[in-house]
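Fold sample X.
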Amino acid sequence: MTISTIIFDLDDTLLWDKKSIAEAFRLTCEEAAEKLGETIDFSQLEEDVRAAARTLYEAYPVYAYTQMIGINPFEGLWGDFDDPTPQFQEMKELVPSYRRDAWTNGLRSYGIEDAALGAYLGEYFVAARKRSPFLYKETFEVLEQLKEKYQLVLLTNGAPSLQNTKLEITPELVPYFDHIIISGDFGKGKPDASIFDHVLKTANITAEEGIMVGDNLMTDILGSSRINMKNVWINRENKEPSPIVTPTFEIDDLKQLQQIVTSI
């Protein structure tokens, strides 16, 4: 059956989220050096803060919920999570201390004991991430080519407030999509089959009429496979294949997508 609908993941498929987070860390470490008046090994401090953030994040009671919805520790470092579910409200209460403690503990691991600086950098990181949106250079070119011929759906894991913030700071993306579905609104995240069934109902298509495009084998590709939907793994970083998840197609540049969908 001919493909009528292309479903895109957002983070690290269209938006270059890893680069945005890395840039926010760089800017914040730069600010730390300026405040301290000394040279800092940015990569080491970033590594220490990332490790501290993971340790804190995994200990919170709400951690299982974040895993189910699809929110990683570094999104917790800049999101406000002002969303209606009790779990998101719990996160909203947690994140100010989480940001403070992640940076304070990271500084301590690096060898700097300064709680006031940790608190300051925790908030500085939020602003730094918001002013560091990056997209892949081919994103708009590919969406422009596809928009006239296909229904386009954005399917993203995460908190609605945070994913919508990402879209607000990259407003050119939104008009390309007929539907935008966020796991936090639905209640379950990829790879749960139910959110893919929800996409089919929202877009009014069958699984055979859609194709999922994403960078994550264990969410985008596994989830779409569970409803027998074709999928495309965008593997820009030459990652090793998975022994348990096999994509229908694999590409390393979004520009290769049009040839795939027109050949099906």
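Fold sample Y, listed below.
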Amino acid sequence: MSDKTETSFPVTIFSFGYKYGPPQDVNLLVDVRFLNNPFHDEKLRSFTGLEMCISDYVLNNGAGQECLEHLHKMAAFLAEQFRLNHKTELRIAIGCTGGHHRSVAITEALAKLLNSNFEGVTRFHRDIDKESH
């Protein structure tokens, strides 16, 4: 199963902010509010998880790396099980407080990792443009 075409399966990963309400139609919902929050650093507040400074802040520490490793294993396992059981898609929602920093960084990193396992990985950021930081 090392050939990527053998593991074609739609996986959608998206970030959201809990303050706008959790999404309803997901298979796995992950709360990453335990990770270091760049919002509390005034120099980082105006950036988003799409930018390297935020991604580094969220991921380049023990909790961020371990979280991403566990999520990757779980998501790859679930996607494969869903595929084998003829499900149509795996939807993963990753939430933080506002949907600007932590959840965005984790979503981007997880999508990149899953792209090495599955074709059909898509991502979006539901709340990234809501309110100013």
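Sample Y note: The longest strand covers residues 8-17.
Also: The two ends are 43 Å apart (CA to CA).
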